[in-house]
Amino acid sequence: MKKVSKFMSVALVLALALSLFAGLNVFAEEGSGDPTTKTSAANGVNPADASTPTEPPAAYIASYTVSGYDGGHYGRGERADITVVVVDEQAANSTGDNTITARINTPAFSQNTVKDIAPDSDKKYTFLFRNVEFLGGSTTFSFEMIYSDGSPMVTLSQNLSMCDDTAPAEPTPSPTPAPTAEPDLPKVMVKDFSFGGTSVEAGKEFTLDLTLFTTSGNTNLEDVMVGLNFGEAKNVSLASGSMNTYVGTLAPGATKHITYKIITDATIEPGAIGITVQLTSKNGEPNSSPISIPVTQPDRFEITGIEAPETIMLGEEGYLSVTFVNKGKSPVNNLSAEIEGTNLANPGQSQFLGNIAAGTENSVDFSVMASAEGTINGKVLLSYEDAKGEIVTLEKEFSCMVQAMPEMDPGMMDPGMMDPTMGDDVKSGMPWWGWLLIALGVAAVAAAVVLVVLKKKKAKKLAELEDDDEDI
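RE: above sequence
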């Protein structure tokens, strides 16, 4: 019994000794290491065993966003904006004016620096890295935070799950294009033009219509321009619009209409005006086409007067005179005069008067005889070619009374005119040939009187016209 009690006492002492040594070893492990060492993880988790209580890191990434890249992944060669929100105790506890500069420090992303980021709150700071190119090799985005107050620099990292680090496939080389033929440029020219007739009248507006045409080729003409050049014609101008017209693109074999409003001065001399149409394009050769437009002065040829006898005797001859003047600035060509009417014994009389110069006055005379008693109703026709080459006819009507020849009184006959051989058998009265001689004498006297009167009237009329011209 005593031996058993002694054995149990020894065992108890040994157990107490072992417990004492085990407690001393535990105290030694808890006191080892530097209690001031800190580690800042990029994702905000201390790398030490989670079961061991530690202090939170001085700075960590609270959140981030990546925007601006195409497709579902942020691939190599693409650019995006990276926004990172950092919780920074170190900057929050700093005194004075402390600004932060954030700088990318990984070769996987293009270098970018963001300066002077103002805090969102006492501890949160937002960094926006714009237009960052993903270069590949790693999907970890790292950046440094540099403090203006001299605090230690902090490096933070974040894995960007949207990054696709797959190297892009080598582009398939495009086949070598077959050699193309040299461009065959068309030429642009004036195919046709019109101005409303065979000529234009001085002082009046007219429309010039140009028809452009491009020759054959395999390339379009670009930026085609059309311009007008009047040269030395100083009395010609545009009535409206611009001298230069933009046409644009013209394909080979195309046509295009261009119109211009043009006016000439009223004092322009009759003739032709020359206009040069200038044609240019961006890729073609310049070209010019001269055109000519005839210009005429207004036709001012007029019949100014007609003198005809009011009354003539049947069987006698009267005289008719027509006066005309060319008041225009162009000559009148191939003038001819003709008389026609009813109760005329000598119709169809015609005279060719030739060319009448501008500013010239003249007259033409006709004889008039009646075929019966009554009235002669007639007209004088003047026909000529104007400056355009067109036939123009002017008419002037006249009329005169026709009376029977008066009978002669036998008592007025000269006795010496009787035939002495007639004897007693001769009846009293005038022989027929006597009456004929008397009639012829009377007609001759009347014709002479009429002719003198007409000449005097004509001379008076010409004098009046000359006075009018001098007054003008």
